Amino acid sequence: MTTFDDIQDIWNQQNDPDIRSSQPEGLILLAEKNTQKIKIKQLWTIGILGVSVLFFSWYCLVYVGLRFSWFHAGLTLLFFSLLLRLIVEYRSYISFRRIDIRSDFTNYTKGITEFYRKRKKIHYVVTPMVGITYIAGFMLLLPVFKKSFSPGFFWYIVISGLSFLILFTGLLIRQIKKEMRLLNFLKKVA
Q1: CA 124 to CA 83: how far, in whole Å?
Q2: Which end of the chain has fewer CB atoms surrounding its CB within 10 Å, N or C?
Q3: What integer pLDDT is reported at residue 3 of this predicted model?
Q4: Over 80: is that where the pLDDT of 124 sits?
Q5: Contact 82, 127 (CB under 8 A)
Q6: DSSP label at 102?
C-alpha cells in the first residue's frame, strides 16, 4: 500500500459487500482517530481563546471601565484580536466537522484539501492581521505600564512579552509549515 491508487482502491472497497478484508475499515478507523486528534486540538484552542476573551472582558468591565484613552484603545485592540482569532478558529472547527470521513476517498480528499486551503488563507491573511493588531495594542499599553510600575517590573513585562511573542511565533510557524506540507501532499493526491 504505497501508492495513491492502492489507498484509493482500499478506500473504495468499503462499499463492496463482496470484500471481506478489514483493510478499508482499518483505514477509516485510522482516519477517524487522526480526525479526532485534530478536533480535540481545535477545541482546546477554542477553549483557551474563549476563556481568555471572557477573563479579559470581566477584567475590563470590573477594573478598567469604559472611557477613551490610548490605554483603552490598546486594550480594545488586544480584545478584538483575541475575539477575531476565536471566531476564525470556531468557523474552522465547524468547517472541519462537516467533512464526511466515511465518504469515498476522492470526496474525502477534496473536502480535506479545501479545509487546508482555507487554513492557508487564515494563516497568511488573518493571522498576520491578528498579530499586528495584538502587538499594536500591547505597544499602546506600554506608556501606561512605564508610568505605573517600577522600572524593573516594566522591563520584566517588556522582556516577557517579547519572549512570549518570539516563542509563540516560532510555534505558529512550525504549525503553519506542517499544515502547508499536508496541503501540498493532498494536492498531489487529489
Answers
A1: 18
A2: N
A3: 46
A4: yes
A5: no
A6: T
| Collapsed DSSP state (helix, strand, coil) of residue 2 | coil
Q: What is the mean pLDDT of residues 26-49?
A: 82
The three cell numbers of residue 41 are 486540538
Cα separation, 92 vs 85, whole angstroms? 10
* Segments in 62-104 forming alpha helices (H): 70-97
Query: What is the percent of the chain with per-residue pLDDT over 90, rounded to a whole number?
Result: 40
Name the maximum alpha-carbon separation found in the chain.
Answer: 77
Q: What residue type is assigned to position 123 of the chain?
A: H
Do the Cβ atoms of 99 and 115 come closer than 8 Å? yes
Hunting for cell 484603545 — which residue is that?
73
- Distances, alpha carbon 27 to alpha carbons 1, 12, 38, 57, 140, in Å: 11, 11, 17, 45, 52
The residue among 101, 102, 100 whose CA lies nearest residue 15 is 102
Give the span between the Cα atoms of 71 and 168, in whole angstroms.
24
Other CB atoms closer than 10 Å to residue 147's CB: what's the count? Answer: 9
DSSP-derived secondary structure letter, 98:
T
Contacts of 126 (CB under 8 A, 6+ apart): 84, 85, 88
Report whether 14 contacts 28 (CB < 8 A): yes
179 Cβ contact partners less than 8 Å away, ≥ 6 residues apart: 116, 119, 120, 123
Show Cβ contacts of residue 186 under 8 Å, excluding neighbours closer than 6 positions: 109, 112, 113, 116
